[in-house]
Specification:
The protein has helices spanning 3-64, 68-99, 112-126, 146-162, 210-215, 222-232; strands at 108-111, 131-134, 141-144, 169-176, 182-188, 236-242, 246-252. With 258 residues, the protein is an alpha+beta fold. The strands form 2 sheets. It has a 5-stranded mixed β-sheet with strand order 2-4-5-7-6, covered by helices on one side. A two-stranded antiparallel ribbon has the order 1-3. Strand 4 (169-176) and strand 5 (182-188) form a beta hairpin. Helix 1 runs antiparallel to helix 2 (68-99), helix 2 (68-99) packs parallel to helix 6 (222-232) and helix 4 (146-162) packs antiparallel against helix 6 (222-232). The protein binds adenosine-5'-diphosphate.
Length: 258
């Protein structure tokens, strides 16, 4: 092989390297853009409750001392807006910690049925507006962070309650799916999700209808957190929903059930 052949080999090596560097740069750029968007969306979401609190504080300052109606209304609004802000900040911290790789999971074998039963018991206790049912469940054990999986299940049950009229049923179950993967299911008889929105519900800050989300005290971050947790377990979601009929979300863990 003469010098020309060496040059050609060098060229292809260089091209390969250039491609690898470019694709790395692309990914870094994309991740940077996503982070920048996240920070900008988060700031925007925080600005609204802050503005409302400021408005009511000013109103209190001017008229609150003489007018009891204004006093009561302002206190209510300030309380509910600061609750909303607290939730938003806690959820943002969870995602920011997760993004930066600072969240450590403690993996151990646990009973999925026990965990879902705990979520069921808590829901029955704190929400008297809905009828909760724990359907006949298999005792499936998986390896994962039980506290995290419980948090994901709680988010799905909270959503079921938020988007389902009072008096309706919410059903929980643990079972294997057609692929023999252990799963838990949360099913409601609520407002449902429009077909075109289903693929967006896991995006940060996405709310099917901003007005609805706002009324229910939603932040648009719950399902992003649930997805982060399920992803870290190598799991996946199956969403089945019909508007005005209800929603069924199944979370599966591709492990052989123990
Ligand atoms: P939020 O805090 O607004 O509930 P999520 O990330 O948990 O945020 O959910 C995103 C959006 O998906 C919600 O705003 C709502 O529009 C829709 N959604 C989630 N769960 C349900 C459900 N069980 N029934 C109807 N819509 C739902």
């Amino acid at each position: 092989t003469g010098p020309d052949a060496r040059l050609q080999t060098g060229d292809t090596e260089l091209e390969g390297l250039e491609q690898a560097v470019n694709s790395l740069l692309d990914r870094m750029r994309q991740s940077y853009q996503q982070q920048a968007r996240f920070v900008s969306d988060a700031s925007h979401e925080l600005r609204t409750p802050i503005a409302v609190i400021q408005g009511y504080a000013n109103m209190l300052d001017r008229w609150g001392k003489e007018d009891e109606k204004i006093l009561a209304e302002s206190i209510d609004a300030i309380k509910s807006e600061s609750d909303h802000m607290k939730k938003l900040v806690e959820q943002l911290l969870f995602l920011a910690r997760g993004d930066s790789g600072r969240t450590k999971l403690t993996m151990e074998e646990f009973s999925l049925r026990e965990t879902i039963k705990e979520v069921f018991d808590e829901s029955v206790m704190i929400d008297s507006d809905h009828y909760y049912h724990l359907k006949e469940s298999e005792d499936l054990k998986i390896t994962g962070d039980a506290a995290m999986v419980k948090q994901a299940a709680r988010i799905l049950v909270d959503n079921a309650a938020k988007y389902t009229p009072a008096g309706a049923d919410i059903v929980l179950q643990v079972k294997k799916n057609e692929k023999n993967h252990p799963c838990f299911v949360v099913q409601d008889e609520g407002i449902g999700i429009a077909a075109g929105d289903v693929s967006h519900v896991f995006e940060r800050f996405f709310r099917a209808d901003p007005a609805r989300g706002r009324d229910s005290g939603g932040t648009g971050l719950g399902l992003s957190i649930a997805k982060w947790i399920v992803d870290r377990h190598g799991g996946y979601f199956q969403v089945l929903s019909r508007e005005e009929i209800g929603t069924r979300i199944t979370v599966c863990f591709p492990q052989n059930p123990h």
